[in-house]
Amino acid sequence: MFASMFGMRARIALAAKGVVYEYREQDLRNKSQLLLQSNPIHKQIPVLIHNARFWAHYIDKKSCMVVEGRCGVREGKKELVEILMQLESQLGEEAFFGGKRLGFLDMALVM
């Protein structure tokens, strides 16, 4: 969305770094399947699609909270189960997140 300050920040950062990218606007009242697949947790913009980086960040952020004990044991167990269920739904029937080959996201899951 052009007027989004978060989208503007992302575009400015990409331009400052000289990163070539494809810009796609979203109708936030009718979110595209690409947006929903690329940011299935928050379903918000901006989304930077670069291999499996969204899920790697999600794993790092969420699993660290559980492992570092930022929540109680019961809450931590519940959070971990939710994380694993979310990841399993994305994995589908594939052996790895990248399909048939071990990839970045699979490596991020190694704790």
From TrEMBL:
Single Gene Ontology BP annotation: glutathione metabolic process
GST N-terminal domain: residues covered: 1-95
Signal peptide range: none
Top-level EC class as recorded in UniProt: transferase
Function comment: Is involved in the conjugation of reduced glutathione to a wide number of exogenous and endogenous hydrophobic electrophiles.
Compartment annotation: Cytoplasm, Cytosol
UniProt GO cellular component terms: cytosol
Name recorded for this polypeptide: Glutathione S-transferase
Reaction equation(s) it catalyzes: RX + glutathione = an S-substituted glutathione + a halide anion + H(+)
Family statement: Belongs to the GST superfamily.
UniProt keyword Transferase, yes or no: yes
Keyword DNA damage in record: no
E.C. number: 2.5.1.18
GO MF annotation: an example: glutathione transferase activity
Record key words, sorted: Cytoplasm, Transferase
Organism field: Salvia splendens
